UniProtKB/TrEMBL annotation:
Keywords: NAD, Oxidoreductase
InterPro entries recorded: FAD-bd (IPR002938), FAD/NAD-bd_sf (IPR036188), PheA/TfdB_FAD_monoxygenase (IPR050631)
Pfam families: FAD_binding_3 (PF01494)
An MF annotation (GO) of this entry: FAD binding
Protein name (database record): Putative NADH-dependent flavin oxidoreductase
Domain of life: Bacteria
PANTHER family recorded: 3-(3-HYDROXY-PHENYL)PROPIONATE/3-HYDROXYCINNAMIC ACID HYDROXYLASE, BLR0106 PROTEIN
Organism this protein belongs to: Streptomyces achromogenes
Limits of the FAD-binding domain: 131-327
Gene: tomO
Length: 394
């Protein structure tokens, strides 16, 4: 089987590695327009269940991840000078650059060709010579947008503005923080991803954004006053940042883009990850869902005798699962958009509202990967490793 993958993000690279593990004879080519060290953002989060799925499907990758991940077991809510601590969770995070480096190394070990700094040919052109074309080219997928009618694409840009930043403040939990200012409310989501490094996502509505004097463009560039948006945010969140600065990485104010598709395949072209769906960052599921897409697609290709059958099975499994997560994420997004309604609550009550999103969201809504499901995947890849065709691939 010949497979072309457009996009070398976590979803695209993981798809390549898993298909190669299950079908070592496959020829897999990955195209990525950016250089290997060019990416956005800082850290990405995995739940315990998501890591269990990786451990079951690819133990060497899991071991490499475990050595690089930061781990924590709390959600902290910082409101009006008080921090409420909520235990009993298990999360891990890793820097996006580090994750991509591990996935590239895994692909190289397995014999996958990755072409960095090379824009992929059009998907229709690739489909003339490849059995399958996987569009893993992100939220702004050109592959999907050229075929919106075929995929039944719906995209909306809405909600508050947000800014993805980093800091050397070493958070020890997933932290939600509220800043009450003369301009109005701002809030932030922060979590550790490496020793002494954390992700910090600030979010603010348009009225407060304008009143606070934030600007378009690179958030780290100073304006006429000599101050940047990161300087302003560091001041506004000084209590939770404990005096640390904020740093940028291709950081610009944006709005969350909701992506939904009625169909995830058209002919030999399949959507995967953010090209197929997005979930609001307040539930931290984007990378996890892309990698779960990759696993489902790899298993479907190994299960079925033809690409159309495999794509039908892939879509039948993933579309309803992702739709459920999107509903949960939308509930979470709407709660934060209505933050003014809860800001006057006492810290203890505010904490309870945030953790349960006003009773509309529970821990069960964020759960995934039951032990039985992990065991089924583990046995599946173990069988592949024991088979003659997989004996040389680990």
């Amino acid at each position: 089987m010949r497979i072309a993958i457009i996009g070398a993000g976590p979803g695209g690279l993981y798809t390549a590695a898993l298909v190669k593990r299950l079908r070592p004879g496959s020829e897999i080519d990955v195209w990525e327009a950016n250089a290997p060290d060019v990416t956005f953002g800082f850290g990405v989060v995995f739940s315990e269940g998501a890591l269990g799925g990786i451990e079951a499907a690819d133990p060497p990758l899991f071991a490499a991840l475990g050595a690089r991940c930061a781990h924590w077991s709390r959600i902290d809510v910082h409101h009006r000078g008080r921090t409420s601590r909520n235990g009993g969770y298990r999360f891990s995070a890793i820097g996006r650059r580090a994750l991509l480096a591990l996935l590239r190394a895994r692909c190289a070990d397995l014999g996958v060709t990755v072409r960095h700094g090379t824009r992929a040919p059009d998907a229709d052109e690739l489909a003339r010579t490849y059995d399958l074309v996987v569009a893993a080219d992100g939220v702004n997928s050109a592959t999907r947008d050229a075929r919106r009618e075929e995929f039944g694409t719906e995209t909306t840009r809405r909600g508050s503005r947000y800014l993805w930043l980093g800091t050397e403040r070493a958070f020890t939990a997933l932290t939600f923080a509220v800043a009450e200012t003369d301009h109005g409310l701002l809030h932030a989501h922060a979590y550790p991803y490496a020793p002494g490094l954390s992700t910090f996502i600030a979010e603010v509505d348009d009225r407060v954004w304008e009143a606070a004097g934030f600007t378009e463009g690179d958030a780290g560039e100073p304006d006429a006053s000599g101050r940047s948006d990161t300087d302003r945010l560091a001041d506004l969140f000084a209590d939770v940042l404990d005096g640390h600065d904020l740093r940028t990485n291709r950081s610009r104010w944006g709005r969350f883009v909701s992506v939904r598709n009625g169909r995830w395949s058209h002919g030999r072209i399949a959507l995967l990850g953010d090209s197929a769906h997005t979930t609001h960052f307040s539930v931290g599921s984007g990378t996890r869902l892309a990698m779960e897409d990759a696993l489902a697609l790899a298993l479907a290709l190994d299960d079925h005798g033809s690409v159309p059958e495999a794509l039908a099975a892939y879509e039948a499994e993933r579309l309803p699962e992702v739709a459920a997560v999107q509903r949960t994420a939308r509930t979470s997004q709407e709660w934060f958009e209505e933050l003014d309604q809860y800001a006057d609550l006492e810290p203890e009550a505010f904490n309870a509202h945030l953790i349960t999103r006003s009773g509309r969201l529970t821990r069960d809504d964020l759960a995934s990967w039951s032990p039985d499901r992990v065991e089924r995947v583990r046995e599946r890849f173990a069988r592949a490793d024991r088979s003659p065709r997989g004996a040389a691939v680990r």
